[in-house]
Amino acid sequence: MKFKDIYGQEGTKTYLKSLIERNRFPHAILFSGKKGCGKLALALATVAYIQCRNRIDGDSCGECPSCRKSFQLIHPDIHYVFPTYSKDTKSQPSSAFYEKWRERIKMHPYFDLNDWMDEIEGAKKKANIPKVSLLEMNKNFSLRIYEGNKKISIIWQSELMEKEGNRILKLIEEPPENSVFIFLTENLDQILSTIISRCQVVKIPPFTDDDLKLYLSEKMEVDPLKKDQIVQLADGNMHEMIKLSEYIQTDVYAEVFDWLRLSFKGNALDIINWSETFLKKSNHEQIYFYKYGLKLFKQFLMSYSLPREEIRLTDESFQILENLKAVIDHEKLFQITALLNDCIRNRERNANVKLQMINSSLTLHKLMTGK
Ligand SMILES: [Zn+2]
Fold this sequence. Notes:
This protein has helices at 10-21, 39-51, 65-71, 98-107, 113-119, 131-142, 169-173, 193-196, 209-219, 224-234, 238-247, 252-265, 268-279, 283-302, 315-324, 330-348, 353-369; strands spanning 28-32, 78-81, 151-155, 179-185, 200-203. The protein has 371 residues and is an alpha/beta fold. Strands 2-3-4-1-5 form a 5-stranded parallel β-sheet, sandwiched between helices. Helix 13 (268-279) packs across helix 17. The longest helix has 20 residues, at 283-302. The relative contact order is 0.10. Bound molecules: zinc ion. Zinc ion is lined by residues 52-54, 60-61, 63-64, 66-67.
């Protein structure tokens, strides 16, 4: 991956490149940032740039043997550590999943832990970075550098090393010459302080709306009318935005508004029909429907105290919410939010989808009408 393949994040890219160019790249660095800010993409571009033999225009060339191997994720001096799960009580090392790791990254590097655990068929298992993966990492650094400029490890979701992280303290403290460790985390507070203190921490900001919009226009096929809404919903999170554009074929806010209207009227037959249609959606779409509802009401709540330009809604949706203020006051707003949170929790636990939709519509009816 080249730096130019990452949309935006210009400040971070410039900073990382300048460290490399001035030969000041630290041997241990930690990228910290919220989910979906592109930490892994930045790490991949960074290691390709470090190893490239023929850097050009402030980026890796993409042509030299090093770049070809970095981009294919088969460079012998770039090692990856990521979460796995235990099988039959036996820990599985990262190396057992290298092939899947390459495949997943080649799709795009903006996946999250859930996507990854799905990918390696461990969705219901506890994800962690076991001792065996860190021993592999230790061993890797005891080997000579084959062909790169440095020997590098990228440790993705590194908070999942938990206490096992102590096993690599000595390695980070007294690294072999030309070693680089790049830790990535979305939960800095869960990383051992002994690791943090040995790293330079780089905070990665979320993507801007413009970066997300550009990615959406150039990489995804999305109805132009939905672009603004998807970008607003994603709120700087590239992972969320890609998910949204993959799963959502309909205008979600319009659907949430339909549900509110229908529940307000409280016609039993309409509610049952609606619940049956809802049942036909995919699991992801069902969960996202409730999540959108939650986001919508969050904006609703904020609209009481913030100016219009800070409310992440299209004019049309904003107007509908303004009208809704006649039947939904502050107190009801909190109750609806709690209801939606329950819906998400129940849905994730695979509760009866149709029954839950009927019940929550009736609860909503009571809340809005007071009857
Ligand atoms: Zn190159």
